[in-house]
Amino acid sequence: MALLSTSAMPRRGVLTLVALLLVALNLRPALTSVSPVLGNIGEALALSPSWQGILTTLPVLFLGLAAPLAPRLVRRIGPERSVFAALVVLAVALLVRPYIGTMGLFLGTAVAGGCIGIIGVLLPGIVKRDFPRRVSIMTGLYTVALNLGASTAAGTTEPLRQLLDDVAQGASLSAWQGALAFWLLPAVIAALLWLPQLRGTKPTRVPARRGARLRHDSLAWQVSLFMGLQSSLAYIVFGWLPTILQDRGLTAVTAGLALSVSILLQVSTAILAPWIGSRMRDQRTVLAVVMTLTLIGLLGCLYAPIGSVWLWIVVLGLGQGGTFSMALTLLALRAPDATTAASLSAMAQGIGYTLAAAGPLLVGVLHDWSGGWNVVGVLVSAIALGALVMALGAGRNRQVASTQGVD
User: Fold this and answer.
1) CA-to-CA distance for 329 and 334, rounded, in angstroms?
2) What is the pLDDT of residue 201?
3) Distance (Å, rounded) from C-alpha 194 to C-alpha 186?
4) Do residues 242 and 255 lie in contact, with contact meaning Cβ atoms separated by under 8 Å?
């Protein structure tokens, strides 16, 4: 625990640590706050399941599409100012998206996803620069903060909607708007506490074509596709699990709580899986175990008797915590140096999240087509098996070609 001692850090390091964790808290609420009230949104705006699927897909798609913008912003204004600008735009998007109609909801959700994608690419580089001897523990804390933000939004958005509805005495169908807009507050707080990081910062030179070599590396593609396929399952859970569980008989609050508990349980394997994996000759066994747990948990939520749902929620959370943290860990283990790790991270997140966006969309389309959820099990099984194949390649004890010094 000495690595966590704040007495060993300069004052600026402590402030940076706190600010980083608060920023990380904001990387999922924009996504996980939608699914608990998705039925209310669909009713209020007359959205079919397919359009609801598009709504849950947009932020994931723009996570990937916006990732390549991060290096350009760093070259122009520096990493700290880029994070601050993304936080400000994120807060504005979260404020206005519930209140400017259907198209505004979709546009605001897309913009929020883009801001999160930019921040997600930038934070690992800042961690490596400011905490070079604490990268492992900082990655763990970063993951914990991210999961805490996701879990809190998933578990409290529907109770908040009900509270607002009670205040209005049920006279309005728009309580979901206030429940969604509430999540701008953490973004504003994080932006204010990030302000001290802007002192003395300047643009950073980042070669524009440094990652081109990776696009011809099969291992880099295996890492990227694993990132995308496991993320697709995560965003299917974020976007649709509460709706699925409500249709299977749970109340809206209980369904939101189930998602919250599943995300919260991810913290344990998010820390444990990389710790075990980094001590093994390669990571294929760990990856196979966490992917299997994820698939079992998903199929249990879809098909097992609803009375046993909490067992499958636990299994799902343990599996997905491991798959996400191992995807992040592979970015470091498969890169021979920090420069290549940054390039691999940008490639994996750009390609991976763009690919992941198809998952929530297909769930909505399949549900609209079939009128039920049974066929969704075929989809998640195919995605999980594809992720397992990629994991068996990415988990080998090999490294991608170095991009250090490549312009």
Assistant:
1) 9
2) 64
3) 12
4) yes
- What is the signed CA dihedral for 153, 154, 160, 162, rounded to 10 degrees? 170
Do 260 and 155 contact (CB within 8 A), yes or no? yes
The answer to whether residue 300 scores a pLDDT higher than 70 is yes
Does this model's pTM top 0.70? My answer is: yes
Assign domain 9-197+214-394 to its CATH superfamily. Answer: MFS general substrate transporter like domains (1.20.1250.20)
Euclidean distance between CA atoms 161 and 156, whole angstroms: 9
3-class secondary-structure state, position 335: coil
Q: What are the distances in angstroms from CA 31 to CA 85, 108, 248, 265?
A: 19, 12, 22, 18
The predicted-structure confidence for 161-195, as pLDDT tens digits, reads as follows 988 888 766 555 578 999 999 999 999 999 999 99
Distance from the Cα of residue 97 to its chain's centroid: 20
Give the SS3 label for residue 208: coil
Say which DSSP state 280 is in. S
Check residue 169 and give left, alpha or beta (phi > 0: left; psi -120 to 50: alpha): left
CB-count exposure of residue 41 (10 Å: 0-12, 13-18, 19+): buried
Q: Residue 83 and residue 207: Cα distance in Å, rounded? A: 19
